[in-house]
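Sequence in, structure out. Go.
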Amino acid sequence: MNIRAKIKVLIADDHQATRELLGQLLGQEGFEIVLAADGDEASDRLGEGIDLAILDLKMPGRSGMDVLRELRRYYPHVPAIVISSQFSKARLLELVENAAQGYHEKPVDWPALRRQIWNILRQQESLAGRPPLSSGPGSGVPAPDERG
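Output:
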């Protein structure tokens, strides 16, 4: 069984093109994708067994930071990556304080985001005491030193 088919990723971004592109790319990686067009929808979808959240910082309704805070309160084990057009030093500090596992500036660098997602998931598997997700030909998982 493909372990990636079990991994559910929430992508919350009010920019439709970004949301759909990330959904398509991660879907090709074998993930189950949950899309949210704003912070309120993202918040509503947190209880759907999300394994990883990718949150736009600035969205209508609840902001990505609000959703991140809610994620930490109710689902502290779920890793989150925040994306945005701009990050200030104060905002980066707030992300660290709310335990975001990463951040990416828009436009998102797909190879860098992909590497970070797999590194986070490998770390989660290791912390859970499960064998690490394998990488290699045909697995769709980049080797830790893969650049791309």
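Check: The first strand starts at residue 8 and ends at 12. The chain has one domain: 3-127.
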